[in-house]
Design goal:
By secondary structure, this protein is of the alpha/beta class. It folds into 3 domains: 153 residues, no CATH class; 145 residues, no CATH class; 187 residues, no CATH class. The chain has 11 helices and 35 strands. The longest helix has 62 residues. About 12% of the residues have low confidence.
């Protein structure tokens, strides 16, 4: 038997040097795996920390929203919503693992302007030993559950190609945005060529009001004619639609209001059709109502409202401010409640003595017809019957709008008889009245009025008439065939002041809201600093502008030119181009005014979102474009959704505020 070869055995034994090299390689591999594992654990920890931070931020935001909702509920339930206020320390309520505090016209809640309610809420949650908070602020009107410039319980009709109706804001740059139109029954555009909010879409249209004569687009703050395509076939919803209010298909909180369309809420119709129009693009495109501009058509619940005539009769009985005029006319009383013959003598007296005027609440028993021009003064005119402005007369009722009381005071109240006459009387070429509580502005007449115009059985504005109003309209219906509002080849300019609706004395309506930097921002930055990976762009939060009165004129605005409405100065120097952030320029911002796009200043992108998945970004872009915003998708690790071109910080802030009011997110990103 042969012995195993010693060479073969030696070959199977690894030299010590090679064993050491193998061990080093093994240890190196183990070290690499360990480092990679630790790095992955660190990344997972970072992701979890970021997720926890975002959860805490989102929770604090929703807690702040809950605080805002609770503040609204408390104000709505108050006996006098317009006067309700919290203590300066606010009200704090524990909620789950966090808490919210809210203030109403106290503590930090200020800055919405005279007469408006300011609500502020703080939501806080604890995270990693720090407090993360979010603040939200809202501007609101106490005393009304709705915000519509023109509202009719019955039909609201626009007739004739010569009709010019403008529902504009009273003060551009104050909370609330555009002026809305609503009904509980039907809104009918009887003539497809009628004009509603048509800002010189065919040629420059001039209006002559108390302020002078100027182009209609100045009512909405444009210093020059807006650049847009009015053709509904080419652009069913032009970009400037966002400056206007909404068409509101209202329904009552309980019960039903019958209409021709058979819908459970008001319908929007064209001509004699019974089809309920669903959207602005359909109204302008499919139905080709090419001179009507609104932001959108939406549904809402609106409780029917009413005023008590006896309350105003009592106010007039206590009003002795007109005792001297009564004495000069031989009336043996000091009160301001008059019968028909007394009031006819007062109107004749004021016509003969234009330097004299009435004051306070005036109550007239019976239907009254103005057949000569007269300035009644700073009054509330309440009539127990119908009110007719006839014979090409000019009726003027002006309030001191520099005061909150002047803005809240009603202008005209047509209450009607408790039992209207069965016999109808024909007035001004066809209008039939019987004391049901109608306001009729006959052909060629002029009505200039401030405050709320309220009727129990509707208002008619006849051909060639002019209505120049600052305030709001609310028109009821007593079950008659009369429309709640009808304009036929007339000009109606209604500059909406939300405070005019506070006369109803109940309810609460939010004009606008914005998110503010919360007290936990610094803590959030400290928490996230250690966990944040480098990124190409760091969002810059938009600081709110300094609080100031909503009546302030911006420092950069020039004095109003002769014949120009004073509030239009807020937009001097801005050219409305959608590609240059026009939406920021035409948005309503609680504490500031639009700022022109200027060269040579730091600019910012307004970013509405950033997504890892394309479908989410596309969905957001689709919703933004449906609202008329120019959207750009920026590719990268995250698909960023941006609106418009880079703009200066002030303009970007306003656009961001507008987006938040409409339910979108908005962040400012410094432009490179």
């Amino acid at each position: 038997m042969s012995r195993p070869s010693s060479v073969s055995a030696a070959a199977r034994v690894m030299p010590r040097e090679e064993q050491g090299i193998a061990m080093i390689a093994l240890l190196a591999a183990a070290l690499i795996v360990t480092v990679v594992s630790i790095a992955l654990i660190g990344l997972m920890h970072t992701d979890l920390t970021h997720a926890s931070i975002q959860f805490a931020v989102a929770r604090s935001f929703y807690l702040a929203q809950a605080g805002l909702a609770e503040a609204k509920a408390q104000v709505s339930a108050a006996a006098d919503p317009a006067a309700y206020a919290t203590p300066d320390r606010g009200v704090t309520v524990p909620y789950g693992s966090g808490r919210y505090s809210f203030w109403v016209d106290a503590g930090p809640a200020e800055g919405c302007g005279p007469g408006l309610k300011t609500l502020e809420a703080l939501g806080e949650t604890d995270f990693l030993g720090r407090t993360i908070g979010s603040r939200v602020r809202a501007c609101a009107v106490g005393g009304t559950p709705m915000l519509t410039a023109l509202f009719g319980v019955g039909n609201v009709q626009f007739q004739g190609a010569g009709s010019r109706v403008y529902l504009a804001p009273y003060q551009v740059g104050t909370p609330g945005g555009g002026a809305s139109l609503g009904s509980l029954t039907e809104i009918n555009f009887a003539d497809p060529d009628t004009h509603v909010n048509a800002l010189s879409d065919a040629s420059t249209d001039l209006v002559t009001l108390r302020d002078g004569t100027f182009a209609d687009y100045q009512l909405f703050g444009f210093p020059t004619r807006p650049d847009y395509n009015p053709n509904p076939e080419a652009d069913p919803v032009p970009w400037l639609s966002s400056v206007f209010g909404d068409i509101i298909k209202a329904r009552p909180a309980t019960g039903l209001m019958l209409n021709r369309c058979g819908t459970s809420r008001a319908c929007v119709t064209v001509a004699d059709g019974l089809t309920d129009v669903q959207g602005i693009s359909e109204l302008r495109g499919a139905d080709y109502v090419r001179h009507v501009y609104f932001n959108r058509i939406r549904e809402d619940v609106v409780p029917p409202l009413a005023l008590d005539p006896e309350a105003f009769r009592a106010q007039a009985a206590e009003n002795t401010a007109n005792a001297q005029i009564n004495k000069e006319l031989g009336f043996p009383k000091e009160s301001s409640a008059y019968d028909l013959m007394e009031f006819y003598r007062i109107v004749a007296y004021l016509t003969a003595h234009p330097s004299r005027a009435l004051e306070g609440t005036i109550f007239v028993d019976g239907s009254f017809q103005f057949i000569q021009s007269v300035n009644l003064g700073d009054i509330t005119l309440a009539v127990r019957g119908d009110l007719i402005v006839d014979n090409k007369a000019a009726l003027t009722i002006r309030h001191d709008l520099s005061t909150v009381a002047g803005r809240r005071a009603p202008g005209i109240l047509a209450f009607g008889y408790p039992d209207p006459a069965r016999r109808l009387t024909t007035m001004c070429r066809g209008q039939r009245v019987n004391g049901s509580g109608r306001l009729v502005v006959c052909p060629g007449t002029v009505l200039t009025v401030d405050g709320l115009v309220y009727t129990q059985d509707g208002m008619a504005v006849e051909p060639g008439a002019l209505v120049d109003q600052i305030g709001a309209m609310y028109h009821d219906n007593r079950g008659t065939a009369n429309p709640s509002f009808a304009s036929r080849n007339a000009t109606v300019v209604l500059r909406f002041d939300p405070l005019a609706l506070s006369v109803f004395g109940k309810g609460f309506a939010i004009l606008s809201w914005q998110q503010l930097p919360g007290p936990g921002v610094a803590a959030l930055a400290a928490v996230s600093q250690a966990a944040t990976l480098p990124s190409p762009e760091t969002p810059t939060p938009a600081p709110p502008p300094a609080a100031k009165s909503a009546l302030d004129i911006p420092a950069h605005a020039a004095a109003p030119a002769r014949g120009q409405v004073p509030h239009a100065v807020a937009r001097q120097g801005h050219h409305a181009l959608a590609s240059q952030g026009a939406h920021a320029a035409v948005s309503e911002w609680p504490d500031g005014e639009p700022v022109p796009f200027m060269v040579g200043r730091s600019r910012y992108h307004v970013q509405a979102g950033a997504y890892a998945h394309r479908e989410f970004a596309d969905d957001l872009a689709r919703r933004l474009r449906a609202r008329g915003y120019p959207v750009t998708l920026v590719e990268g690790p995250l698909i960023r959704v941006r609106i418009g071109a880079p703009m200066i910080q002030e303009a970007a802030q306003r656009l961001a505020a507008e987006l938040r009011v409409k339910g979108f997110e908005a962040t400012l990103i410094p432009a490179r």
